[in-house]
From TrEMBL:
InterPro entries: Aminotransferase_I/II_large, CobD, NHTrfase_class1_PyrdxlP-BS, PyrdxlP-dep_Trfase, PyrdxlP-dep_Trfase_major, PyrdxlP-dep_Trfase_small. Its EC number is 4.1.1.81. Residues 27-361 form the Aminotransferase class I/classII large domain. This is threonine-phosphate decarboxylase. Coiled coil: none annotated. Decarboxylates L-threonine-O-3-phosphate to yield (R)-1-amino-2-propanol O-2-phosphate, the precursor for the linkage between the nucleotide loop and the corrin ring in cobalamin. GO terms for molecular function: pyridoxal phosphate binding; threonine-phosphate decarboxylase activity. Its cofactor is pyridoxal 5'-phosphate. Pathway: Cofactor biosynthesis; adenosylcobalamin biosynthesis. GO terms for biological process: cobalamin biosynthetic process.
Length: 372
């Protein structure tokens, strides 16, 4: 199946503000999954203090300090890292640099993998997890695709897999995923693992074993967990020879100085990391329980900072999202995500009072379910 990029993303608060004739600050955006605690206070102080120098000079085109900090964090060499203007820059760069001819996307998932592959002229096939399996990623079927790709041997092939996955919130067990990565390596297939939400369940990451697999590319972001969407910064980790080629294909200075400085400070702010994790674990559980009290609303378990919901029968995601939008509450309508249903929406976990507003609005809209 050829994939079309979905034409909407979460987080377009500016367009909605314009449409509603309201200020963006009066809207509550549950459509982009960003750390509700905001950026680390150390980042705010650093950016205020260093503004003059960061604005007056070109940024380091090699992102040297950040690559060294990441290397020390992950016990790898700075040569393993490529920093991007958001991980999205790398998602779009990879299919072109790898000269992908065919690819498997394990879905339902982020639309940009399909968009990037299509722009690079690759044929993408979607392998969808099934609702009746709770959207557990079908790794056994992905393994079969890898074997058949190796037999076809027509140019480079790649598998895109998001772990934990957006918008389903499902995560793969590291042992099972490592087995798939091993198979891909043996078959000469690239494995592109998007770990954009992995900070919320770090023990499942494959970064600690990345050095064993030259065909494995792991993508990370400072957007979600570190709450820096506006600065645009993410990174890829892979074999040094590939990282070097990727860096050569980037435009010079694609990552600005604010972003580089903020990322390094954020990742080293351990109390902020601990606070963010503890908050999310408790609040996700609380919101999930409250939403589960709405009759007919299905709440899928999640390892990230959002929840996938399936609305009760007779409700459509597009209609519910539109009504909530009028109330200033933005949710992600997932009805056009291939592999999901017309009743699927994704909501980010925000602060406690904000989440309560969302729960109350949904309860009013969907029926008379008793609050728990
Ligand atoms: C799964 C996933 N990967 C990657 C990205 C891109 O993130 P960024 O470019 O901000 O790092 C997003 C953004 O929404 C995403 O949802």
């Amino acid at each position: 199946m050829a994939l079309k990029a979905a034409d909407t993303h979460g987080g377009n608060i500016h367009a909605v503000a314009m449409e509603l004739g309201r200020r963006a600050s009066s809207l509550l955006d549950f459509s982009a999954s960003i750390n509700p605690l905001g950026p680390s206070s150390k980042v705010r102080r650093l950016l205020a203090r260093e503004a003059e120098g960061l604005i007056r000079h070109y940024p380091d085109p090699e992102c040297g300090n950040l690559r060294r900090a990441l290397a020390s964090r992950w016990r790898l060499s700075p040569r393993h890292f490529v920093i991007g203007n958001g991980s999205i820059e790398l998602i779009h760069l990879l299919p072109r640099v790898l000269q992908c001819r065919s690819a498997l996307i394990v879905g339902p998932t982020f639309s940009e993998y399909g968009a990037a592959l299509s722009l690079a002229g690759a044929q993408a096939q979607l392998l969808s997890a099934r609702k009746r399996d709770g959207y557990r990623p079908p790794l056994d079927k992905a393994g079969k695709w890898i074997q058949s790709a190796a037999r076809r041997a027509q140019g480079a092939s790649a598998v895109f897999l998001c772990n934990p996955n957006s918008p389903t919130g499902q995560a793969c067990e590291p042992g099972d995923l490592e087995e798939l990565v091993r198979q891909a390596g043996q078959s000469g297939v690239w494995m592109i693992l998007d770990e954009t939400f992995m900070e919320y369940c770090e023990s499942l990451s494959l970064l600690p074993v990345l050095h064993r697999y030259p065909r494995l590319i792991v993508l990370r972001s400072f957007t979600k967990f570190y709450g820096l969407p506006g600065l645009r910064i993410g990174y890829g980790v892979c074999a040094p020879s590939l990282a070097e080629v990727l860096r050569r294909h980037q435009p010079p200075w694609s990552v600005n100085g604010y972003a580089q400085a903020a990322a390094e400070t954020a990742m080293n702010d351990r109390p902020y990391v601990r606070r963010s994790l503890a908050f999310m674990e408790a609040e996700r559980e609380r919101v999930s329980m409250r939403l589960s009290g709405i009759p007919g609303l299905r709440v899928f378990p999640s390892r990230a900072n959002f929840l996938l919901l399936e609305l009760p029968d007779l409700h459509q995601a597009s209609g519910v999202a539109a009504v909530l939008r009028q109330q200033g509450l933005l949710v992600r309508d997932c009805s056009r995500v291939p592999g999901l249903t017309t009743r699927s929406i994704r909501v980010a976990i925000r602060t406690e009072p904000e989440n309560d507003r969302m729960v109350v609005a949904l309860r009013r809209l969907l029926g008379t379910g008793r609050d728990r």
